[in-house]
Write a structure and sequence with these properties.
The chain has about 600 residues and is of the alpha/beta class. The chain is about 40% helix and about 15% strand. It contains 22 helices and 18 strands. It has an 8-stranded parallel sheet with strand order 1-10-7-6-5-4-3-2. α18 links the parallel β16 and β17. α19 packs antiparallel against α20 and α21 packs parallel to α22. About 0% of the residues have low confidence.
């Protein structure tokens, strides 16, 4: 029939292909393998899959490059092959097309967890390199898919448009046609249209029926052509394999409804097979774009600005008096008597809050959320519960955080957490659905009264959100930039790794001043010469100047404790005019040492 891609979709409905990952998995490729690398190491397998979809009736086939970006490939050591993998992906799809009247779409997906390690310029560059490589390989259009963050999709869209090719911009919506942060389908469609997308639409998600509802909402506010690539429903895990139950007939029937709603490009995402595409192509043969009703802007409530922590907090005293938080380790067993005694003694000394780490060094201790609630109830002091991303997936984190709010836990320090391999539990695995940046964003969303999908949860959790900061690095500006990103996501205070170097302390104060949040320097009293050498040489994030290690050299027992306390007091006296508080970390759970320092600080603050 001929004509460019945009000319074609103006007059006919085009059939896309189906899942690539699902089919490669079905062909024996392991789930933990890198599918995109197959373009280089098993090209015939990729060619055969393209051929299957073409035989089924696909008129638009996607390159096997969804995750072929620097953030994902560098995580497995092949970041230098980004351009090669994308070009080869385009070449393979073009070879499979072999002169047929079909289009090749260059597939680009989100950067994933690795994005958090990149600055804004590096994120843009990652998308630019991928888009340019796909264009060089000969694709007819670019399809951006499975993005759940609108800001990231807008960045990818800007990069893709620089190729001059048509760009399809698809989002993966959650329940209720919302994105993370509460952005509705209508708002997303308007923003993508304004950003220059050629087609807008949705892919992935819960299944055809929910995607149909999303498509109708997008169609109500934009007259741009729409794209739809639904999943084949929810997967079921059976005998070690993921099985999708949606039949090709059901899938094709929903596709007809999507065309009636305005879709001009219809394919499949997770769980769809060449058979799904074959039945859909038969049903939609000769289909024309549906007449669209007049569109108009929909009045919507804008997404709220970053929430501030609700209610009273230990930070209410910041600027009025010296604020002191003290870290205590939860017990390894069920006996809470010592930590309760320590909390009482610290409260009496004037401490403002107790920090409770969560399974530090990946070693099992009592759950800190329940313990935080007990300390609040029994002692009457605020508790800052450290929450890691290691032990729970996104579902579990949301549930536990809402439960923590119910228990009265009001302050959270968000940390990525030590990997499970560091601990003693053989067979334990790390989850890391989130990292410290995205956990802070989740906490901020919960404060606003929505969950990760933007669905309402009620009045909001009211957490005071904290972040960790490590000043003991060669390039402090890198850590400051990371902290700035955490502040932008919702952090309202920071606690640092232990600092012993006054010059480094001054650099930290100067370089974080513009962030406008309290930064509590960590103070970990030393207890002996061997302790000082161990911390300096073996504990990541801690650096102790030679002069201090020389003072501690050879000291043990009470002499070591006295000297360590003297060094801590000297640091506090030298810095008190520059900060409004401290984060004390008593060694080996010796809260008695922290009691002395709390009294010392409060007597001078």
């Amino acid at each position: 029939m001929g004509g460019s891609f945009l000319e074609r979709v103006a007059h006919e409905v085009l059939i896309g292909d189906g899942a690539i990952g699902t089919m490669l998995y079905a062909k024996g490729v392991a789930l933990d393998a890198n599918f995109e690398h197959l373009n280089l190491v098993r090209p015939q397998l990729v060619l055969d899959l393209h051929a299957e979809y073409l035989a089924a009736g696909a008129q638009v086939i996607e390159t096997n490059t969804f995750g072929a970006n620097y953030a994902k490939l560098s995580a497995i050591g092949i970041g230098g092959k980004v351009a090669e993998i994308n070009r080869q992906g385009a070449i393979l799809a073009r070879r499979a097309a072999n002169g047929r009247d079909v289009f090749v779409a260059g597939s680009m997906g989100p950067l994933g967890r690795g994005k958090q390690e990149l600055n804004d310029e590096q994120v843009r560059e990652a998308f630019l390199v991928q888009a340019a490589s796909l264009a060089e390989g000969g694709v007819d259009l670019l399809i951006l898919e499975t993005f759940s963050e609108l800001d990231e999709l807008e960045t990818a869209l800007a990069a893709a448009r620089q190729t001059g090719l048509p760009v399809v911009a698809n989002l993966a919506f959650g329940e209720g046609s919302r994105l993370a942060g509460g952005i509705e389908a209508e708002d997303a469609a308007l923003r993508l249209a304004a950003a220059g997308a050629s087609l807008v639409g949705a892919n992935c998600g819960a299944g055809p029926l929910e995607l149909l509802a999303t498509l109708k909402r997008m169609a109500a506010v934009t007259d741009l052509p729409l794209a739809a690539y639904p999943n084949s429903g929810f997967p079921e895990y059976v005998d070690g394999r993921y099985i999708y139950r949606t039949t090709p007939d059901y899938f094709a029937a929903r596709a007809e409804e999507m065309v009636a709603a305005g879709a001009v490009l219809v394919g499949g995402c997770c769980g769809t097979t060449p058979e799904h595409i074959r039945v859909m192509a038969q049903r939609l043969k000769g289909a024309r774009p549906a007449a669209r009703v007049a569109v108009g802007a929909v009045s919507r409530t804008p997404v709220a600005e970053k929430a501030q922590a609700l209610g009273s907090s230990f930070l209410d005293r910041w600027g009025k008096e010296m604020v002191v938080t003290v870290e205590l380790d939860p017990p390894k067993g069920l006996d809470c008597s010592r930590i309760l005694a320590g909390s009482r003694a610290l409260k009496e000394a004037g401490a403002d809050a107790i920090n409770l780490a969560e399974n530090p060094l990946a070693r099992v201790r009592m759950g800190n959320l329940a313990l935080a609630s007990l300390i609040r109830r029994e002692v009457g002091i605020e508790v800052i519960a450290h929450i890691t991303c290691r032990d729970r997936n996104l579902i579990g984190l949301q549930s536990d955080l809402m439960g923590a709010s119910l228990l009265g836990v009001s302050s959270i320090l968000a940390v990525t957490g030590d990997p499970a391999s560091l601990g003693e539990e053989a067979g334990a695995s790390s989850v890391f659905d989130l990292n410290s940046f995205t956990l802070i964003k989740l906490l901020s969303d919960l404060n606003r009264g929505v969950n990760a999908l933007g669905n309402p949860i009620g009045a909001g959790t009211g957490f005071t959100i904290g972040a960790a900061f490590n000043p003991n690095t060669q390039k402090m500006e890198v850590q400051v930039a990371r902290l700035a990103k955490k502040v932008a996501n919702g952090a309202c205070f920071a606690q640092t790794q232990p600092i012993y170097d006054l010059e480094r302390f001054e650099q930290m104060v100067e370089q974080t001043a513009h962030l406008g949040i309290p930064v509590l320097p960590g103070v970990l009293p030393l207890v002996g010469g061997r302790n000082a050498e161990f911390l300096h040489n073996e504990v990541p994030g801690i650096s102790i100047p030679d002069s201090i290690r020389e003072r501690m050299a050879g000291k043990v027992g009470e002499e070591g404790v006295r000297e360590g306390l003297a060094i801590a007091r000297e640091f506090i006296e030298a810095t008190m005019g520059r900060v409004g508080g401290y984060y004390l970390i008593p060694p080996f759970g010796k809260y008695e040492i922290a009691v002395e320092l709390v009294k010392f600080i409060k007597s001078r603050g």
